[in-house]
Amino acid sequence: MSSDLQSLLEPVVLNNYITLVIITAVVYDYVLTFSREIEYIWCKPWTRVSAMFVVVRYIGLCWVLTSALNGSSFVPGPLEACRAVTLLSYWTFVVFISAANLVMILRVYTLWNRSRVTLWILLFICAAQIITDVAFDSIYGNLNTHLSVTIVRVFNSSFCNSSFVNDPPTRGFYSALAAPRLLLAAALLILAVFQTVKQSVELYKATKQWQPNRYVKQLERALPDP
């Protein structure tokens, strides 16, 4: 094999290896936790939190798989399949990140003793994030105007390739797009840490004992419907 051909194939092979690692790790995790999912979700009364869990878990799985497969030779075509995988990776990310944020908002809301002010502030930021994500995908995920999906062939391998055309987004646009998501993440982190530390200190003053695991478990546990 010539050095030129080898240099062309190396990125394809590396991308395939990365794809296999990602898919293996994710599927392995899902298999390990599936029995607990049946016990705690499917065998319990159905709630809104159960529905959100299923959305986060399986839409997230779909997003990871489509994102990993996109650009690998495991999806060599046809063009319709490439377009479907690309669009799925775009839109499943929006649904996944929105649902995951809502779950975290409910956790922080519960940690703050169901403060309506806290809830509405977080929901407002989350709504801004959802609107910007949907707007981006609607504009730049449009195959007729801004998104181009093609099949690239290298030697005997082929893979999907996507790129923006006709006024692609700038760095400033990406920064504006990320701002609501970063703001929400920072707000959730600060509120959770502040309340956890505050309640831990209050508990220590009352009992003269540190119980650090109490509020960590409170953050991790499944929540009832608000």
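That was protein one. Protein two is written in the same sequence-then-structure order:
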Amino acid sequence: MSRNYGETWVYESLVGGIPGLGISRTLAVAIQFLLFQIGVLALGWYYGLWDAVLAGTVAVLVAAIGSVEMHRLGAANRRLSTPPEHKRLLFGSSIEIVLGVLAFIALLTYVIAWDGTLIERLFGPNPPIPVVYLTLLILWDLTYRIGTSWWSAVVALWRAVNVDLSPSEASRVRRLDAENIGFSALQLVLVPFLLEEPILLGAVVGHVLAVAIVCSAAIALT
């Protein structure tokens, strides 16, 4: 199915918008995973930060699976016979990236101003700049997925209230909403690394619960 401007996530449009670069979704996700993972392993080895490699690997894996889910949810939503307003709201508004930016800024605020010692605990008193750079890049990837899941849930609730669907399509969107719950719940694999960070732990768990509640409401109203 062709994808027009305004009918994709910002993430989906990045690679597709580069002239002359035509790669499959699978290859794009594989490249993303390999680049991040090689970076985690190489920097962990070079700077002797092996304690951080496991957490970094899990974060990279979550980001890669999140990319797969974004492709799945995006393609499935485009196949729906919902009115243009639904797809324009879901994709064309690009609100998911705004929410991702807000989540990322909140994370940086916590790291810099609220806690102030998280980076030191992770990487020592003099954290290497390349390590911090890669860490923030991976964290941005994760917070963007969080923003996408939030916005998908909100639009799902709007769709449930405002769009009439046939019984067969209603069943499809319920499965989509359930999949979005799973998409957000994927973040819970990070919980073991957040046990000493109660605020971040609460933020991740709260995000998952919020998406589950809104999507469950959408499922019930569809």
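The chain has one domain: 10-221. Keep this in mind for the problem set.
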